[in-house]
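Help! Submission page says 'invalid entity' but I think these are all valid:
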Amino acid sequence: MQKKYDPVTPGRKWFKELVAQVVFFVLGRAFQSAAKLDAGIRREVAEWEEGFILAMCILPKGPSMMLKKVDGRVCYAGWAKEDADLIIRFKNIESAFLVLTPQMGAAQAFAENRLSLVGDVARSMSFVRCLDRLLAYLYPAFICRPLVKRMPPVLRPIRRRLYIYTLGIPFGL
Amino acid sequence: MLPSYFEFYNPVKIVSGHKALDNLPYELSQMGVTRPLIVTDKGVVGAGLIRIVQEAFGSSGMTIGAIYEDVPPDSSVDVVNAIAEVYRANGCDGLVAVGGGSPIDTAKGVNIVVSHDKGDLKDYMGADRLTGPLKPLVVVPTTAGTGSEVTLVAVIADTKRNVKMAFVSRHLLPNLALIDPRMTLTMPAKITAATGMDALSHAMEAYTCLQKNPLSDAHATAAISLISRYLPVAVEDGKNATARLALANASCMAGAAFSNSMVGMVHALGHAAGAVCHIPHGVAMGIFLPHGLAYNLPERAEIIGELLLPLGGAEIYAATPPKSRPERLLESLNTLQKDLESKAGLPMRLKDAGAREDQLGEIALKAINDGALMMNPKEMDMEDAKAVLKKAF
């Protein structure tokens, strides 16, 4: 009898997708909150055009998140639904998991071609500087240091970390 | 140093050598092109280089669709659209760019427009906006520095909005690079020196920045060896075809290296200085290269020290203890710079290149927002950039 060759449908990595979506939510809300607290992030965001949209997504159709500048402020806007000015795309779920968990920094991820950029490249530099400052609030120094080229000098990291985790992320304040 | 992961992509066929240009019609026919449009500028025509290209088509049975010779030094959307009109009106089916950075970038822009039925050039601005292959593109460089014949980038000005649009896509890579030393023989000594320093900065940054990998390293070190040996020769004797061919090859290899491992702060500062003070790119590269290497030294001492072998040669490398190699490399670079300054008048400082001290802040601001900075091994913020600029001034 002739052997039958059926199509193979690979399974989904539900756990990693779920983790990525949760981290996107945390990052988005934390960014929104840190943009109010931190003067460095405020200065960067002030240079972004009103209505500027930044999206992060996992290819091909994985979790995503969107940040939008509205009335001079950056807001977390949930899943990336609109066409964004700058899209940071993880090429696969494994690369996204490495960066989001956080085992790898943005610069290293770019150097290893794990991310691709679509759109305004110059704005990505500003976003990465903001991200470095955000990481300094989200994580203690021993976790943050390997993720950034140089620890950003942030003020009152512990107090602000407490604020971001207790009010910023849960309530979007 | 072996990276845990890397990618290298260079599908450009490279045809290099004395009279290589004579193969142009054959190579075009292999790509299915029968009516190529030649994109060039007045400088190239004035130097008699287009005549050499035209002669290469002799007895080939091929018709040149048109020769567009009015590309300005800073290409713009209007120029790209005008050339696209000529391309369509004359029924062309491929592009040949002959020139330096501007005609090559323009031809890449034209290729975007003529390969898409709808949409404006600005719809494709940024990274990875192009999704399909473009029309065949051949590049014949007439300078030995940009490496544009093997890069996936094009920069075109939108004069109405007063912004420079960057296009980055693997589809922008030409199909063929034709390197013929006849095309660079007429380059003046100062431009030879500046473009040579541009190629050297591509190779050195590719070798020292975060995305370095064994394949880009091989291209970079081969390029540095050739530049170190032949740049002073070509500056002194412009008609030396061997030196010209060596530099054109070095520029091409440096281009392939930095296309795959990117550049760093030297280019970020150079792009910014070009935008603010209109310092020619090669001149800026010559000025910033030693400062960039010195700035990155704490993070990359060993890697920078390794460059002494291709730049200084085996004897100097072997006679220098490993710890002293980075400093010795900077000394060798300084010697090369001084040589180029005395022989070709290549400026070594920003003030000699026409920059004013009150412009340094603006340059620093532009530099820290330049995408090239992403792959720099050491963080450079506004204050760091100002400090480097002050030293270079």
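Support: the input was valid. A stray whitespace character was the problem, and the output above is from the cleaned input. Chain B has a mean pLDDT of 95.
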